[in-house]
Write a structure and sequence with these properties.
Layout lengths: L1 E9 L4 H9 L2 H6 L3 E6 L10 E8 L2 H12 L2 H13 L2 E9 L7
Antiparallel strand pairs: 1-3, 1-4, 2-3
Length: 105
Amino acid sequence: MLTLCIKYKLDSHKLSEFEGYARNWPAPIERCGGKLVGYFLPTKLAGRTDEGLALINFPSLAAYEQYREQLMNDPDAKANVARADNSGCILVEDRSILQPVGMEA
């Protein structure tokens, strides 16, 4: 198993727009072959208030590559990205692929 980790640098004045963006992802992600662990918003309790996170699991790198291709052609995914771009809520996205250690995949 592999996990896509997307770290977002957000406009802290537009967190509600990012929340809407995050809430629109489960169906396209699942439809295109990913297993959404979750989207996470920052809090004012601890840490940075301008960072968000998404975690999505895949059984293999090939499955992730197929997911990316399908997602780029998914109408709901395209519309969600366009809404986020228009709102300016996401300033930077940083993607990495992680693998679990010390646990069964």
